[in-house]
Design goal:
The longest helix has 9 residues. A hairpin with a 4-residue loop joins strand 9 and strand 10. Strands 2-1-9-10-14 form a 5-stranded antiparallel β-sheet. Strands 3-4-12-11-8 form a 5-stranded mixed beta barrel. A two-stranded antiparallel sheet has the order 5-6. About 15% of the residues lie in helices and about 40% in strands. The protein is built from 4 helices and 14 strands. With about 190 residues, the chain is α+β, with helices and mostly antiparallel strands.
């Protein structure tokens, strides 16, 4: 599960390549926050502010993640997986281990992570969820799920090539791209 990630100056510079020229508050992005998200409209990419979390139409509960293994079969996510995929650039993300210790994961040397998401309009406001998958060996000591990520060179395919979606979901970002870097208590 992914429930918090960080954006900062590196993300702002990356978003500027796609025409984002609005101020960006550095800091943690939490569920229900509005944050810039890269999406495709035909062959054109644009950065759009979106709110994190979709309401489940049956229960009304806020859903912040979607399991990549079942998203295509769930009515709440299937159309988005087929037609409305997005990228959430992040400098790092966090998970909490069984002892409620916050663990930070980030790419090496100032790179970015490209988290895969799905979006849809709810009451004319775009909302997104982050796709998750079973944890790899780096994440397993901390949590049993992790965000689905793509390499920067695969962003175009993720956003606009439905024929490659399944393969990208199954691909692995190299393990050296993500590492635990710090631990501290969630509760003092």
């Amino acid at each position: 599960m992914c429930s918090r990630y960080y954006i900062g100056e590196n993300v702002r510079r990356w978003l500027a390549r796609y025409g984002w020229n609005q101020p960006l508050s550095n800091g943690d992005v939490r569920p229900q926050d509005c944050t810039p998200v890269l999406s495709a409209h035909g062959k054109n990419f644009s950065v759009v502010p979106m709110q994190w979390g979709m309401k489940n139409p049956k229960t009304g509960a806020l859903v912040i993640n979607a399991r990549e293994e079942t998203a295509a079969a769930k009515p709440v996510f299937s159309a988005s997986l087929a037609h409305r995929r997005c990228i959430l650039p992040a400098e790092r993300f966090y998970e909490w281990d069984a002892g409620k210790q916050k663990v930070t994961f980030q790419p090496p040397a100032g790179g970015l992570l490209y988290l895969c998401g799905l979006y849809r309009l709810d009451e004319n406001i775009p909302h997104f969820v982050i796709l998750t998958k079973p944890a790899n060996e780096v994440m397993q000591p901390v949590h049993d799920r992790m965000p689905v990520m793509v390499r920067e060179e695969d962003i175009d395919a993720w956003l606009s090539d439905s024929s490659r979606t399944k393969g990208l979901l199954e691909s692995e970002v190299p393990l050296e791209r993500i590492q635990a870097v710090e631990e501290f208590s969630l509760f003092p």
